[in-house]
Design a protein that fits this description.
By secondary structure, the protein is mostly helical. The protein has a domain at 472-589: Tetratricopeptide repeat domain (Serine Threonine Protein Phosphatase 5, Tetratricopeptide repeat), CATH 1.25.40. It contains 32 helices and no strands.
């Protein structure tokens, strides 16, 4: 019983102390320094070796300009704890706050002298100078400490000082020296470097870091330099150069293709198909296991089907599929390629029946719930293509139930929302999309957000939702490869709902369809109309960028292309197209790109 009482008393005392610490900090944060000092004084009196209580009590006195109490506190602590040379910095700073700079400088010099005599104290003394923004003194202490103890990790603190002083090149040098000395600091250094690097390859800091990394790589190869260069190039969307670094990394480490797959996808997403193919080809040629080879082949064919500027006929792609099936068979291992083949047959060759047959056979051979779910999702996609919406919804729902709380289930829910949207059931679509806001997959979450925004924006001023229903119908027709019908439907939307929120969406969608029919003048007109309608509209930067691409790659009007890209740079600096627009603008202008 006595033991229990002692435990309870200890817990009560500990809880009360914790509450007092929090209360004191809250007072300090709100600028109520008298109240903060009162509590910190009581806490410090009970534990005079607690640096947290000491520091906040000292700061509270200084904020109250009670410098005598602050001085007495420091002097008492100096007597209490010997060899705490950083307290000379605290005392000097207390005098500096009173504009007694001669005394302050004298104390600072004593602290620096002690740091020089006792290098083991250099970090504490330097940190004390740094905390009070006395950067030159801190720098002097750290540099001398590094000289006397080369094995100490002074580079970390030096980098922070250089950053505060705005000496970024020296900061880069210090951080890279730190990695060279201790590779365990790589993640920490990467985190700090990322604060100074932008997506602009011509940014001065980007160029400084790149120069240092290349010089170090040439003088003394280190895989850390390859990794940082890969990250830097990828940030600048220069994926070809990033790929060269990733290949060098693989050749040295050779333990994973994860970064190469990721790089390939990023390159593909930004229309750099050549780099995407090169990355995938490298993976395929160097992978030793069948699963990785199949994944690489699947990605390669996907990029061939859906990539920009990929000049292969459907028959050539058909032959590629058949060659893959000869090499890997049609068993469980090649399931991803079988699903992709079904997609190709449906949406590119207009042969959904054969696609369904392939998927049904694959479903029989599938070994687990996840594989069966992937097959069912593709089957449901084909049901939508065939106009069997209820059958599609039932199948998507089955997937949700079969693999609950998974990324596949979230994908099925998104497709339920999209199919409901196609049917004009916007309320049910929004219900599904609301759940997907917290989806772990960024792609699913972003797609859900975009569809939710489209629906929300276009039902506000249209109570019977006629405009959105027609637009959704056009999207469905596009999905079903009924391009001309989709264009005609969008023309009706533009005719009947001029001035409505849906107008720019309809113009943009129609422009994309015109391009697929190679009616580029019509596409140009639509993009121009979007910009004229809403210069600050949500699709204005999209239209401007697409116009630039149209002028540059199809209509061969370099000046107009340059004008569009320049517009992105100066009028839409937050656009997702900024990096590519800037790159293309500089290339058209004839800049020498590093």
């Amino acid at each position: 019983m006595k033991k229990l009482i002692l435990i309870l008393l200890f817990l009560f005392s500990y809880n009360a102390s914790s509450q007092n610490v929090q209360m004191a900090f809250d007072y300090f944060r709100k600028g109520e320094y008298e109240k903060a000092a009162s509590i910190y004084k009581k806490l410090f009196d009970k534990n005079k070796y607690n640096s947290l209580y000491f520091n906040y009590l000292l700061k509270s006195y200084q904020e109250l300009e009670d410098f005598d109490k602050a001085e007495n506190l420091i002097l008492a602590q100096k007597r209490r704890i010997k060899n705490r040379y950083e307290l000379d910095v605290e005392l000097g700073y207390n005098y500096q706050l009173q504009n007694k700079n001669k005394i302050a400088d004298s104390l600072f010099n004593i602290a620096i002298s002690n740091a020089n005599k006792n290098p083991k104290n250099a970090l504490k003394i330097g940190k004390s100078f740094q905390d009070h923004h006395l950067l030159d003194a801190a720098l002097q202490v750290y540099l001398n400490g590094k000289k006397q103890n080369p094995n100490g990790n002074y580079e970390y603190y030096l980098a922070q000082i250089y950053a505060e002083k705005g000496e970024i090149e020296k900061m880069f040098t210090a951080y890279l020296d730190l990695i060279e000395k201790n590779k365990n600091y790589y993640t920490t250094v990467y985190r700090y470097l990322s604060k100074f690097i932008t997506n602009d390859a011509q940014d001065e800091y980007n160029k400084l870091l790149k120069r240092q990394l290349i010089i170090r790589l040439q003088k003394k190869p280190n895989i850390a330099w390859n990794k940082l260069l890969s990250w830097l190039y990828a940030t600048q969307q220069d994926y070809a150069k990033a790929l060269r670094q990733e290949i060098a990394i693989y050749k040295r480490e050779g333990n994973s293709f994860t970064n190469l797959f990721s790089l390939a996808q990023k390159a593909f997403d930004t229309k750099d198909s050549e780099t995407a193919f090169n990355a995938i080809q490298f993976i395929y040629e160097n992978a030793l296991d069948i699963d990785t080879k199949i994944k690489a082949k699947e990605q390669e064919i996907f990029y061939t089907i859906y990539g920009k500027n990929v000049l292969k006929t459907t028959e050539e792609i058909e032959q590629e599929f058949q060659q893959v099936f000869i090499e890997f068979g049609k068993g469980d291992a090649s399931l991803p390629i079988q699903i992709l083949y079904a997609d190709f047959l449906t949406f590119k060759k207009n042969n959904p029946q054969k696609a369904i047959e392939i998927l049904k056979n694959a479903e029989k051979a599938a070994l687990n719930k996840q594989d069966k779910a992937k097959i069912k999702i593709k089957l449901a996609d084909i049901f939508v293509f065939n106009g069997k919406y209820n059958q599609a919804l039932v199948t998507y729902t089955q997937v949700q139930q079969d693999v609950r709380s998974s990324n596949i289930a979230n994908k099925a829910r998104l497709k339920i929302a999209k199919t409901s949207y196609f049917k004009g059931d916007f309320d049910w679509a929004k219900t599904q999309l609301k759940v997907l806001k917290s989806a772990t997959s960024k792609l699913i979450s972003n797609d859900a957000l975009a569809l939710n925004l489209l629906i929300s924006d276009n039902i506000v001023d249209d109570t019977i939702r006629t405009a959105l229903k027609k637009y959704a119908k056009a999207e469905l027709l596009t999905y079903q490869n009924k391009t001309q019908q989709a264009i005609d439907t969008l023309s009706l939307v533009l005719k009947d709902f001029k001035g409505h929120a849906i107008e720019d969406e309809a113009l943009f969608k129609q422009a994309e369809l015109y391009k697929s029919q190679q009616k580029f003048a019509f596409a140009e007109h639509n993009y121009q109309k979007i910009i004229q309608l809403k210069k600050d509209g949500i699709l204005a930067d999209n239209a401007t960028y697409e116009l630039g691409l149209l002028y540059e790659t199809i209509l061969n009007d370099k000046e107009k292309a340059k004008e569009m890209y320049e517009k992105i740079i100066f009028e839409y600096p937050a656009s997702i197209y900024l990096v590519d627009a800037r790159k293309r603008f500089r290339k058209l202008r004839g800049d020498k790109i590093e």
